[in-house]
Amino acid sequence: MEGIIGIFGGAFDPIHKGHVEVIRHINNLNLVQEIQIIPNYQSPHNKNIQIHESHRLKMIELAFKKSKNILINDYETKNKKTSYTLDTLLHLKNLEKSKHLSLIIGFDSLCNFTLWNKWKEILSLCSLLVVGRTTSKKEKVDDRLLNRIIDYKEELFLENGKIYLLENDLVNISSSEVRNKIKMGESISDLVTHEVEDYISKKSLYKN
């Protein structure tokens, strides 16, 4: 859909098949014109990022090298500061004044969204595209967000602050699981793409 940018942020330490499947699924739905993947420089949630951003950016590039409309945005890694969603959205809005921004998050993040730094200001700049099965789980969502949830995806991009639940299945993988398997000398072929697995092996990442 023209004029709409999906924003998918995270540590991607490393990027795994769970990330890849979500992004490809949304891309295939043609909900957005493009998806920008934005790796954190330093997470505001006190996550200890294990490897340098150059490796994380390269693995994202390898994971999506054959994909159209999926772009890598290195704004946060170049900024060299704690990566706050609001700051990144303000930066993107300044660059893409005429385009609608839709932040892609998981349902767990939606349940905690009102704990995010300046969450109301975030919603003034974008809509939320929520991934993951949410049927019968809406009671976990803060009451202040419930009236923002819409039933039809076409409404999502009419104005900022709307929330749409995609109701798709997620691949249950975490980056910490990938790192732990590497440290244990176990195969990660079922957790990451072949290209990412090769890169991790060649660069001897996550072994220490």
Radius of gyration: 17 Å
Q: Number of folding domains?
A: 1
The DSSP helix count reads 9
Return the average pLDDT rounded to an integer.
92
Total strand count, please? 7
Order of adjacent strands in the largest pleated sheet: 3-2-1-4-5-7-6
As a percent range, the share of helical residues equals: 25-40%
Give me the CATH fold name.
Answer: Rossmann fold
> Do you know the CATH architecture?
3-Layer(aba) Sandwich
Sketch the major β-sheet.
Answer: 7 strands, parallel
Topology pattern, helix = H, strand = E: EHEHEHHEHHEHEEHH
CATH class: Alpha Beta
Could you explain the architecture of this structure?
The chain is α/β, with parallel strands linked by helices. It has one domain (4-172): HUPs (Rossmann fold, 3-Layer(aba) Sandwich). 35% of the residues lie in helices and 16% in strands. The chain is built from nine helices and seven strands. Strands 3-2-1-4-5-7-6 form a seven-stranded parallel β-sheet, with helices on both faces. Helix 2 (53-63) links the parallel strand 2 and strand 3 (70-72). The chain starts with a strand and ends in a 5-residue tail after the last helix.
